[in-house]
Design a protein that fits this description.
- With 136 residues, the chain is of the alpha/beta class.
- It has one domain: Roll (CBS-domain), CATH 3.10.580.10.
- Helices cover 40% and strands 21% of the residues.
- It contains five helices and six strands.
- It has helices spanning 21-30, 51-60, 69-72, 86-95, 115-135; strands at 15-16, 35-39, 45-50, 80-81, 100-105, 108-114.
- A three-stranded mixed sheet has the order 1-2-3. Strands 4-5-6 form a three-stranded mixed sheet.
Length: 136
């Protein structure tokens, strides 16, 4: 069985709940991601803040400069344990509107799996299978 930890990105850009909107936007742009986990100092997941959350806030509240990550984030986050079967994560990404899901171990953020991570994983496996066939 392939587990979430076998595919997840371990280097995850995160943000604290008190970060202002400008810092959240800067982190999204600097890390070329569309969403960031919002975590406590000890790595506990509080929520996710995405480009969509920022755009939604701009649509309904022009005073976004005064907002923090805690104001912007979605708190009902789908996440998986790092030992979860990759097919379960894959199915969730296919059937939902999520682009990424946080991966936890003992309640702490240890990684993230995006659609792109799964595509990269599949590509590596396909290249490995092709190499094995050519070696035979």
């Amino acid at each position: 069985m392939i587990c979430a930890k076998d595919v997840m990105s371990k280097r995850v850009a995160t943000v604290g709940e008190g970060a202002n909107t400008k810092d959240v936007i800067r982190l999204l742009v600097d890390n070329n991601v569309t969403g960031l986990p919002v975590v406590t100092e000890d790595g506990s997941l509080l929520g996710m803040v995405t480009e969509k959350d920022i755009l939604r806030m701009l649509l309904y509240d022009r005073d976004i400069k005064e907002k923090t990550a805690a104001d912007l984030m979605t708190t009902e986050v789908t996440y998986f344990d790092e030992d979860e079967d990759l097919m379960t994560v894959f199915k969730t990404l296919v059937e939902s509107n999520f682009r990424r899901v946080p991966i936890l171990s003992d309640g702490k953020l240890t990684g993230i799996i995006s659609r792109a991570d799964i595509i990269r994983f599949l590509s590596k496996r396909a290249r490995g299978a092709a190499k094995e066939e050519s070696d035979e």
